[in-house]
């Protein structure tokens, strides 16, 4: 999944002096940057590369003269990376100097030249005559060193990519490690490892002209085509594993990049060998998928999620790479299928509000493939061939990504997907440029996963400003497919408060969703207090069988309603045919230009959902809201229950409950959260439960084992049938706040909530 893990420690001491020097230099050199770097003096002392000087693509010292920042050029905004992989921004002390997001080549220090290939009437099969064709044409390679010299982000990413390429080159050939079985998770990880290596090496080759990168790539490609007799690499002729078509598509994309980016470096024999591997192991299966109705592995042609994007993208890149060289006509034939199919399916994955149809993590796979395919079409044919406009709300999926990003991890409901390897969020840069949404590009450039070859070409150094400037703290995603809301106390201070809650339909999520209407996450003080259990075992029996009510998928704890942060009625699963409705209110608070933001005391937001259909007609309203200037959270359930209920929340915290049973004290990562049951109905009290299936649950499929959830406690409230208003107040114990700084909200029915109902 996305979370990079706590691999780097928070380091706040990098900012100050460096930023001051940057501003001074910028002014001194008369660069007239819209730099707006914070000249904070609140923190001091340069770190000695503690956050790795750009080798991670996000932190970096941001200081001129450092490894990652060309001298005299503005540093990066983010000064370090926190334990969750998020950028840490210096704190402003005075008037902010961050400007509004913009992409303005006219006033930029440096930007890309325009593409000399501007066909009058672009055609899918008329490609540019020079190489490379895919993603990065030669005019961009020619310009790149000049851009790197004037842009700290590009400079840092370039260094990181070289570092990664060097590490990969020193490693062994990729092993054909099968995950589960070929027809289960197959060799998708293997394919993505080959792809990330190949694109890094191809980048390093083109930037250095050092042919040792070509030689190392060749060894890998001979191996991954099954032609290295010393290593087993799959079934001959089907080495790329068409039964799990994603694998085949990712291998094809890897070979396409190698073929195209190293075109001139290959001998004729090598180039021909690569072409035949692309044809025989990749594209020929694509033709079968599109033309043979009896073929069982082409089901992805009619679904809207990541499978359609990845499969069409890999086939398209393979076809574009060899078009003209291919004597069989297969490449042109493939293009006649993939582009229109991706527009009808892949491009439709974001719903009308931008939410990705699967989950927040699958967004990465889907948007990366969409971006690779679209970018390849643009550079090779001179047109996006209609990809960007195929879904009028595709643009909004960038906002989805920003709001689903919490202060710790994502609001990572549902399945999280396999390892990412070659996948990242750099599509945000391409979308930012095309849709004129500079915020997307600015957001992504500070992220840990930005250092990757595609990003070098999708990023436009003419972008400037602060992505958080004038950006609303809250957003309501209102499509009934996935109704949900996101609320926070700041965009630039991830030590604050973040909540997100979902309702929406439970089906049509490509069997990656959970039965989780009403599910929520809560972050405060850099801890996730209410969290998700994530994926189960993808290779478990019938895990992906269906989204039907009686699907075996819903017998697994992590997928069932009991494994979510919501309420259980009669220990039953929610109704898969539910169509909950939502309501949302926000003070509309937006952060200003400064990284320092004080929440106004009347700033608030709420999201309520009518979950009556989710519970088969039992009247049930759930609401969550910010209180007290976004320092506290109220979660309320108004239910008239005909059978017993259990309020449930999963946490990694240590839980201790007072004798009255109305206050639970949660400890996590050295922080404390007080959870209070206010206006408690008679008999209502907190308890803890184990995160395991109930003995009365329908049996698991034969041979199945449920995933354990070590370290997780269920905070619960168990009650018999009855009419209740359960009001749970979350009081994070913020440093510097005393008990009198917390409020106790009035009791208001969820249906009567307004922006001022809890003042
Ligand atoms: C590239 O290298 C950086 C710095 O060592 C590391 O954090 C990152 O995970 C590497 N990226 C990939 C895709 O391996
Ligand atoms: C890119 O990074 C490599 C490795 O650090 C370095 O040798 C090269 O000079 C950099 N390229 C440019 C144009 O700065
Ligand atoms: C390599 O893959 C084979 C399966 O093809 C597996 O048996 C073996 O354990 C793997 N080796 C390593 C080092 O992962
Ligand atoms: C690599 O070769 C190209 C084409 O000859 C040239 O333009 C470029 O400057 C060379 N790059 C390096 C780093 O030597
Ligand atoms: C691998 O071998 C097959 C069969 O001889 C050949 O068609 C293909 O071009 C080879 N590919 C590579 C990369 O060596
Ligand atoms: C894309 O979305 C962004 C963010 O909402 C917005 O600023 C921009 O105007 C949109 N662009 C188009 C073309 O819709
Ligand atoms: C517990 O922590 C792990 C590791 O950070 C995380 O993946 C998981 O979502 C957390 N579980 C909960 C219930 O918060
Ligand atoms: C949501 O589910 C309801 C009930 O199953 C269905 O009628 C409706 O069409 C679904 N909405 C969408 C957008 O899929
Ligand atoms: C709702 O009805 C479905 C279908 O009968 C059933 O499987 C499910 O357990 C019920 N859930 C609740 C919460 O009543």
TrEMBL record:
The chain crosses the membrane at residues 12-35. Gene3D superfamilies: 2.70.98.70, Chondroitin AC/alginate lyase. InterPro entries: Chondroitin_lyas, Hepar_II_III_C. It is found in: Cell envelope. It comes from the Eukaryota. GO terms for molecular function: lyase activity. Signal peptide: none annotated. Residues 50-63 have a biased composition (Gly residues). SUPFAM superfamilies: Chondroitin AC/alginate lyase. Residues 39-77 are annotated as: Disordered. Keywords: Membrane, Transmembrane, Transmembrane helix. Residues 40-49, 64-75 have a biased composition (Low complexity). Residues 497-679 form the Heparinase II/III-like C-terminal domain. PANTHER family: CHROMOSOME 1, WHOLE GENOME SHOTGUN SEQUENCE (PTHR38045), HEPARINASE II_III-LIKE PROTEIN (PTHR38045:SF1). This is Heparinase II/III-like C-terminal domain-containing protein. It comes from Calocera viscosa (strain TUFC12733).
